[in-house]
Amino acid sequence: MITCPNCGFNNENEHTTCWQCKAPLRGQSQGKRVKGTRDIERALRNEKIKCMHGLFRVHPCEPCGRGQEEAAQYQHSTEQYGMDVLLAAGVTTDRTQALQLIRVILAQNKPA
Ligand SMILES: [Zn+2]
Ligand SMILES: [Zn+2]
């Protein structure tokens, strides 16, 4: 069983991408866990893409006074930044896949 580093879903061993969120479960080498998950989490905590309340800037934040419109302006830069983080961590070498993955991460961290 492989636990998805992105959503925590428990996948069958033969799966290379998460059944639930389609995040890559491991790199090229067999049986190795995705490396750098901690690094990714740390990098994604960067104030460039998150406000002091721990919310991604692409989401509105009331204490910050960041509305829907302002939040939308961060979409592109946040995706680019997140993509670079995932690529640098070696989660994937495919920019399209990295973009999809960061979009999943952003969507999952949407405030309730
Ligand atoms: Zn997943
Ligand atoms: Zn905030």
Mean pLDDT over the full residue set: 86
Would you identify the regions where 5 or more consecutive residues have pLDDT less than 50?
28-33
> Which structural class is indicated by helix and strand composition?
mainly alpha
How would you characterize the largest beta sheet? 2 strands, antiparallel
What is the helix tally? 4
Order of helices and strands: EEHHHH
Strand order of the largest sheet: 1-2
- Ions, cofactors and other bound molecules: zinc ion
Portion of residues in beta strands equals: under 5%
Helix residue percentage: 25-40%
The backbone outline, from C-alpha atoms, is elongated
Q: How would you describe this protein?
A:
- This protein has 112 residues and is mainly alpha-helical.
- The protein has one domain.
- 36% of the residues lie in helices and 4% in strands.
- It has a two-stranded antiparallel sheet.
- A hairpin with a 6-residue loop joins strand 1 (2-3) and strand 2 (10-11).
- Helix 3 (75-88) crosses helix 4 (95-108).
- The site of one zinc ion has 7 residues, from loops.
Task: Kindly list the characteristics that best describe this protein.
mainly alpha, 36% helix, 112 residues, 4 helices, single chain, binds zinc ion, two-stranded antiparallel ribbon
